[in-house]
Amino acid sequence: MKILMVNKFLYPNGGSETYIFKLGQQLEQMGHQVQFFGMEHEGRIVGNQMECYTSGMDFHSSKLQKFLYPFKILYSTEAKKKIIRVLEGFKPQVVHLNNFNFQLTPSILYGIRDYERRSGEKIKVIFTAHDSQLVCPNHLMQRYDTGEKCQDCLRGSAFNCTKNRCVHGSLVKSFLGSIEGYLYRKIKTYRFIDQVISPSYFMKEVLSTSAVLKDKIMVMHNFVDKPVTMDEEDKGKKDYVLYFGRYSEEKGIRTLLKVCEELPDIPFVFIGSGPLEEKVNRLPNVENRGFLIGEELYEGIRRAKFSVFTSECYENCPFAVMEAQMYGTPVIGANIGGVPELIAEGQTGELFESGNASELRDKIKSLWENEEKINRYTKACQEVEFDSLKTYCDKLLQVYS
Asked: Could you tell me the pTM of the whole model?
């Protein structure tokens, strides 16, 4: 089978990029042909045989880019023409869309269907919903200025985005986001998507507010690479509570640091990076190990007594919650978005009200002082099974077919 993966970024940038790279590798190992379409970038690590990509766009740079922003964000003739060229050269049976709004724009959907009409070839269009972009103009369901969670655009007007200045706090950018949301809702562009893969039941509920999408959505939780085989000596826990992820407001870092300060006798280890790193470095009971990958990261995860996932934004299907449990580490997680779907409360971890510092503090303190419960949770985590990459791809091929 020939599969064209589409994503605006074709270099390591975040979760959706990790997703497409791993899928591509696994599908090729299974005997399928996979190529990629998106923006050109000096860090690009995947591509297509036509060497055809859209020009790079950085909306935060030059005056010219800012002038062109209103036009390129809504409809890109370049993206439409170039994806048609790639389709003509590669002739895939499946186009698997990921993040495409703003930089590539939904113009690529028209390109795919135009190619179909000209060639007589049928293409199945799959979309993995990494966020709520198709129903929320700023894709976070969160107001920029206050961080307040918001679903006004889901069942109401897309111009709530303008009213609340949801895109970077900018009236102009928020208005453009509203126009994009209104336009593609009005002309029902997303009807060209055949199947939507939602990584969580929460995201399915969010996307189901779209009449065009609601009957096309299926849930497939993300895959997690199986842990490496550990020697007996590697299985022991060490005395620390782990946070791993981005050091930023929406991930609840300020709340977590407040709790760390109130629990000076409990050692915390942070693995990651982000804008609040300076604040992370200030507390004496917090060890900042920085951004780690591979075995160093996994060692940090499996040696922790338990981990905390403190997000204060609507999460979809966070890898951090799944990976912790796969490596035998219980999770105290924020009860928000798709997080509670991944934690068996009272078995593999516990939940707390997102943003509630006092409840988080009490949960951490109580679990830290209860070795028997930690051991029980750890044992349950070691029996948790999420889809491996191979199993996920087996399911994905059924969707493709």
From this structure: 0.89
